[in-house]
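A quick aside before the break. I want you to see a complete sequence-to-structure record at least once, exactly as it would be stored in a machine-readable document. Don't worry about memorizing anything.
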Amino acid sequence: MIVCAGNNETFPFATPIGVGLCESAVNLTRTVLMNVPEFLLFIGSAGSYGAFDIFDIVESKAASQIELSYLLKKSYTPLQNNVIVSDENVSRETPLRALANAERPIIVNSSNYITTDFELAKRFNRLGIGLENMEFYAVMQVAQSFNIPCGGIFVVTNRCDEKAHDDFLKHHRDAMARLTDHLKKRIPNLETFHS
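That is the input. The structure line, written in tokens, reads:
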């Protein structure tokens, strides 16, 4: 099953699940309860913490949910904010520091807020986190709960800096077209998928 956020990121071959961590978790859970898929593929846009350029296409099987206040040592969480990985070589709840020097997948961080401070964004890179997408962590959590293999394919629309929103708007239409072209090459019979 292919899923996407929705709103201005819809595709004829993907099921919209909502924007942000809460909407996507609730709606995807509802969808999975009605029909458990063999695989979940989330597609959408992402902001770069500096390691990727505008229009890069990035595939990931790893997600984190780390807020900026955590990086600044202004908050803590009793919850697991560790990486979730759908890969046989890495545990699904491997701590970030254990992955720091290992060969690892690209980690996508999720928050209901968009990072607009590039100095803070660079801290994510030092943790091995390359991208920011609002929904992917929730998608990975749902997939983990139902033991569904999961991954994501993202197109970079902006850097996580003070121009993040303007650049997102400026590049979004072209980015969605590039992502669609990539998916048509990557997934045979993509046109047969229906939302």
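Two observations worth writing down. Residues 164-186 form the longest helix (23 residues). Strands lie at 2-4, 15-16, 40-48, 57-60, 62-64, 84-85, 107-109, 129-132, 150-159. We'll return to this after the break.
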